[in-house]
Predict the 3D structure of the following.
Amino acid sequence: MLLAGKKGLIVGVANKRSIAWGIAQAAAREGATLAYTYQGERLKANVEELAKTLDPTAPLYDCDVTNDAQLDAVFQGIQSSWGALDFLVHAVAFAKREELEGEFVGTSRDGYALALDVSSYSLTALARRAVPLMTIPRGLPPVAGGSVVALTYYGAEKVIPRYNVMGVAKAALEASVRYLAYDLGPKHIRVNALSSGPVQTLAARGISGFSDMMKHVESRAPLRRNVTLEDVAHAAVFLLSPLAAGITGETLHVDCGYHIIGM
Ligand code: NAP
């Protein structure tokens, strides 16, 4: 099992379609023990019910990633229940609906700041708090280090109509991955991004024209299909696992090859 004995924090489960939940299931199958965050009471029951299907004792933490006190509480909780952390999955993003409808040029100052705060800065805020828990030597023989994976999208690299400010937020997220990989490499902490093709989730429903995006990918991608949740989850487990020991600062495309097409 690729993640036997590893403990990981999953940030971004909303429901059973969430990419974060796909990754949690695959990581658990590979032997990982997991903790989760949920955003507010509204999602608590959902996340609790899902988490229990894998592990009735899984720690759960209420956490809006824009709230520093809640972020601190998550890592204090992990410190007291586990004492260390092996991996972190960042699968959160948000932009106001109106920012994902019109033109990018119309993005408001508030809308820009909010999208970048939730979808990009949160990775740095989480990673910084994870570092002390990842640098504790553990296991036999004792080793220190960890792995961080953040979910991104091709709209960071190329213009995807109506993805708008989220594309800018994902570009900042991918750059953050590289800077974090540089800072944390000497501590044996790897940081990578996984660029997923479109998957029907709650967050995806907020992007107008999403079904057309999926049809477009299916007709143009070299594999002539869209990715499945399992495709994304398996690649995430690879990045989290020792099989990817030499990979950091990378953006791995899991998109049926769509990003290689020029025409
Ligand atoms: P999802 O199931 O809706 O997950 C998004 C999660 O982000 C939800 O749990 C959401 O909680 C959470 N979130 C939003 N604002 C938050 C905040 N302030 N604090 C804490 N959590 C917050 O959608 P998903 O598609 O799986 O998205 C996961 C990641 O994959 C995102 O980074 C997304 O951009 C990325 N991605 C998705 C696709 C796709 O096609 N679906 C493709 C490439 C990359 P609420 O429901 O409470 O807002």
